[in-house]
Amino acid sequence: MQEKLTHRRVILARPRGFCAGVVRAIDIVERALTLFDGKPVYVRHEIVHNRAVVDDLTAKGAIFVSEVDQIPAGSATIFSAHGVAQSVEAAAESRNLDVIDATCPLVRKVHKEGRAYADKGFDVILVGHRGHPEVEGTRGQIPGRLHVVATVDEVASIEVADPTQVAFVTQTTLSIFDTQDVIAALRARFPAIVGPDMRNICYATQNRQKAVLDLVGKIELLIVAGSPNSSNANRLCELGLSNGIPSYLIDNPDKLEAAWFDGVSSVGMAAGASTPDSLIDKLLARIASFGPVNIEIQDGHDENVHFRVPDRLSAITPRAARELETHPV
User: Fold this and answer.
1) Nearest to 125 by CA among 165, 92, 93, 166
2) CA distance linking residue 275 with residue 15, whole number of Å
3) Catalytic: 46?
């Protein structure tokens, strides 16, 4: 990408785009298409929350469905990166589906922690947004008394069996910035509450939010590349707005409006953890059509986290080279 010295700066957040869990999930689908060459490969729910990714994998042969009862018995089936409830696992087993689980390892860690607390008789509080696939999957993985809260106000209404036996876990697409007030309210109400080390929260969510916060003060407008159903992309946009920066979540370059850029000399661009670089590039091209730009990359660090694919896929070469692979701009 050629840089030009002009009056309008566009600063790219660093890091941005695909995290290790998303790369692993996409890789699993592509390798499964090779493994089951000529046979249908079904994916329950969007593999990650990005329409461009889903469309790309659909074009390569993946079949996306809402529930396992839409999948023919015995078929190859992939669970999305968000994880699923135990009831979904049981339904897949009853249909004799050949399941490959693409649940993010960090989500599985939350499942494990929650079950461990529940097995000890604790009430478990899940800090997250009701209806999000990850939260619904986590709810279905933790037996016993489970409560979902998203705001400080909801903490006051929680009823537990024993205030000295309470634990919490969090949705991975929320960061310390998102959860700190709720967790503080939980600790105030239940002084004996236990929970995971917050340093172990999803690294990708935390890093991308920090990158946006580092842009504040340098920009007059924030564009977040991502889909409207992406929790972590929405949080990036909310961070910009909460810091007084006009911020827009965009999944299609045609939705960018030239009027937003009138009189704006410095623009920040961030991207959710499920956003491909191809969308970022298209957004940059659209912004450049409003006037020449100088593209800069924010100071920061690159992520070097990698998650292994399941053993049965480790020796498989994906059917086609990933067109949405992340790359430095």
Assistant:
1) 166
2) 12
3) no
Contact 175, 235 (CB under 8 A): yes
Q: Are 319 and 37 in contact (CB under 8 A)?
A: yes
Tell me how far apart the alpha carbons of residues 15 and 13 are, in angstroms, rounded to a whole number: 6
Cβ partners under 8 Å of residue 301, min gap 6: 14, 15, 207
pLDDT at 302: 85
Phi, psi of 149 (to 5 degrees): -130, 145
Nearest to 222 by CA among 179, 272, 181: 272
Question: Measured in Å, how far apart are the chain's first and last C-alpha atoms?
Answer: 7
List Cβ neighbours of 162 (8 Å cut-off, separation of 6 or more). Answer: 123
Judged by DSSP in three states, 59 sits in helix
Q: What is the pLDDT of residue 157?
A: 95
> H or E element: which one contains 183?
helix 176-189
Q: Are 167 and 122 in contact (CB under 8 A)?
A: yes
Taken in order of first residue, the domains within the chain and their CATH numbers are: 8-18+203-297 (3.40.1010.20), 20-103 (3.40.50.11270), 106-200 (3.40.1010.20)
Single out the catalytic residue among 89, 134, 136, 303: 134
Distance separating alpha carbons of residues 270 and 215, to the nearest angstrom: 9
Regions in the chain scoring below 50 on pLDDT: 1-5, 321-329
- What is the token pair recorded at 41? 């490969």
pTM: 0.90
